[in-house]
């Protein structure tokens, strides 16, 4: 785990759950080849440098998870079927087959709980201090999933915080030439997502995930451009309050 700019002045708290493809040596790469460990199944390609660019532009705190989601996914509840995936897309993960409950608990204690405890502590301190706060997860997605091409350049995903999500979509709509969707390429689920439901919705903190198509993050110049436009949009979006209103819960 890495925490960047913990004392940043922005109301936005950035979280990059799938920042790294790193797997400790003890796990033997989970039995996967190097090409597989370079694919989207292991991490969100381009998400970490984009999150760092946003942190710098907004003066925002940033929490980056430092291990591959194949070990344990920090954006899945521990009870979720793909918390420790036996298969990702169409790829079998040999090192995740038939794990014991002791091994599952060990991975959660090592790689899941400390990350979320750090985020929770930071958010609770902000709320106690009366600071306006919004949670923004930074992700990327593949242009093609199981043979189906995805038409969007980016998506804004939200649960209870519809007002914040829609304000952000409106702000991104001012950026020309982009196809931006609401709750694409998937939507937020209490059973399948962690960051937005737990760190955002349950605390009454506006929370969204930003999903950028990873072929739009292939070069440093593209990442910098996305950092600029997302920072503009986040500044234009409605100023996040520390409480989600009834209108947001629709």
Give a structural overview.
With 250 residues, the protein is α/β, with parallel strands linked by helices. The chain has a single domain, classed as Aminopeptidase. It contains six helices and eleven strands. The strands form three sheets. Strands 1-3-2-6-11-9-10 form a seven-stranded mixed β-sheet, sandwiched between helices. Strands 4-5 form a two-stranded antiparallel ribbon. Strands 7-8 form a two-stranded antiparallel ribbon. α2 crosses α6 (220-236) and α4 packs across α6.
Highlighted features:
250 residues, alpha/beta, Aminopeptidase, seven-stranded mixed beta sheet
Question: Could you provide a short overview of the structure?
Answer:
This protein is of the alpha/beta class. The chain is built from 6 helices and 11 strands.
SSE topology sketch:
Elements (H helix, E strand, L loop, with lengths): L1 E3 L7 E5 L17 H4 L9 H12 L3 E3 L22 E2 L2 E2 L8 H28 L5 E8 L2 E2 L2 E2 L4 E5 L3 H11 L7 E3 L12 H6 L6 E7 L6 H17 L14
Parallel strand pairs: 2-3, 2-6, 6-11, 9-10
Antiparallel strand pairs: 1-3, 4-5, 7-8, 9-11
Shape: globular
Strand order of the largest sheet: 1-3-2-6-11-9-10
CATH-scheme architecture: 3-Layer(aba) Sandwich
Strand coverage percent: 15-25%
What is the share of helical residues? 25-40%
Indicate the structural class.
alpha/beta
Whole-number count of domains: 1
Q: What's the CATH class, please?
A: Alpha Beta
Sheet with most strands: 7 strands, mixed
Count of separate DSSP helical elements:
6
Low-confidence stretches: 240-250
Could you tell me the CATH topology label: Aminopeptidase
Order of helices and strands: EEHHEEEHEEEEHEHEH
> Distance between the terminal alpha carbons, to the nearest Å?
34 Å
Overall number of strands? 11
Annotated CATH homologous superfamily: Zn-dependent exopeptidases
The radius of gyration over CA amounts to 17 Å
Mean pLDDT: 93
């Amino acid at each position: 785990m890495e925490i960047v700019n913990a004392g940043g002045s922005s109301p936005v708290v950035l979280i990059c759950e799938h920042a790294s493809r790193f797997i400790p040596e003890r796990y033997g790469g989970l039995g996967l080849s190097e090409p597989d460990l370079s694919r989207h199944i292991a991490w969100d390609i381009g998400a970490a440098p984009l999150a760092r660019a946003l942190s710098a532009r907004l003066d925002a705190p940033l929490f980056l998870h430092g291990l591959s989601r194949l070990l344990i996914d920090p954006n899945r509840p521990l009870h979720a079927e793909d918390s420790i995936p036996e298969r990702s897309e169409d790829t079998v993960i040999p090192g995740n087959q038939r794990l014991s409950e002791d091994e599952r608990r060990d991975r959660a204690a090592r790689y899941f709980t400390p990350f979320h405890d750090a985020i929770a502590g930071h958010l609770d301190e902000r709320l106690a201090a009366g600071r306006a706060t919004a949670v923004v997860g930074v992700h990327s997605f593949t242009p093609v999933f199981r043979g189906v091409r995805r038409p969007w350049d980016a998506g804004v995903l939200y649960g209870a915080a519809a007002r914040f999500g829609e304000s952000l979509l409106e702000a991104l709509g001012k950026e020309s030439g982009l196809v931006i969707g609401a709750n694409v390429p998937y939507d937020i689920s209490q059973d399948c997502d962690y960051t937005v439901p737990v760190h955002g919705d349950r605390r009454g903190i506006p929370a969204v995930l930003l999903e950028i198509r990873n072929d739009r993050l292939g070069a440093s110049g593209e990442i910098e451009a996305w950092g600029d436009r997302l920072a503009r949009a986040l500044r234009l979006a409605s100023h996040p309050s520390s409480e989600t209103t009834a209108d947001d819960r629709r």
